[in-house]
Every structure is written in structure tokens, then in C-alpha cells.
Specification:
single chain; mainly alpha
């Protein structure tokens, strides 16, 4: 029996509790998260408030797009929720200034 089969058995018998991290920020920024997941090439991914960019395969092209969307430079260990918040702030700044950038 593999390690994963053993774990699955324990979970099915109620011996291990699996709890997802909160997702309040992700839910408030669904549109931005959807855009990020498309850029990352994983539109189907499960995202919580603790999911980081490093959870996905990254290359310089993807990071450049993410920096442009968020209007700032981000490291790979920043959360998608944080990037989504920056994306919304950048969009709101553009709206206030009348620009479309």
C-alpha cells in the first residue's frame, strides 16, 4: 500500500482532519484571481488566501505580466490574494486618473 493510499484510508475513516485555509480575500477579488490563474496557465486551480505565486510554474514572461497587472514588483512567495488586491488598487488608480493603461 502506497503512502497516499494509506493517507486516503485514514481520511475516509475520519482519523485525519483536512481543513482548507480561509478564502475571504480571494472571494472579494474573484475577477482578479481569475485573470491571475489565466496568466499562470491554471484557470482550474483551487486558490485560498494563502496560495502563493510559487505554487505555480513561473517564468519571467508570467512574472512580467503579473507585475504589469499589479502595478508593482512581486516575489514568488507573495500570495495571489495580495497580488489581486494590488491589481484592484492599480485599476482604481487608473480609473481615477482617467487612464486605461
Amino acid at each position: 500500500m502506497s503512502k497516499w493510499q494509506s493517507l486516503a484510508r485514514r481520511v475516509s475513516r475520519g482519523k485525519i482532519r483536512i481543513e482548507l485555509a480561509p478564502n475571504e480575500v480571494v472571494l472579494r477579488h474573484e475577477e482578479e484571481i481569475s485573470v491571475l490563474l489565466d496568466v499562470l496557465g491554471h484557470p482550474e486551480a483551487l486558490v485560498t488566501d494563502e496560495t502563493t505565486l510559487s505554487s505555480f510554474p513561473l517564468d519571467e514572461g508570467k512574472m512580467r505580466k503579473i507585475r504589469r497587472l499589479g502595478g508593482a514588483s512581486f516575489g514568488t512567495h507573495v500570495t495571489l490574494a495580495h497580488v489581486a488586491e494590488r491589481m484592484r488598487e492599480a485599476r482604481n488608480r487608473r480609473k481615477r486618473s482617467g487612464g486605461k493603461r
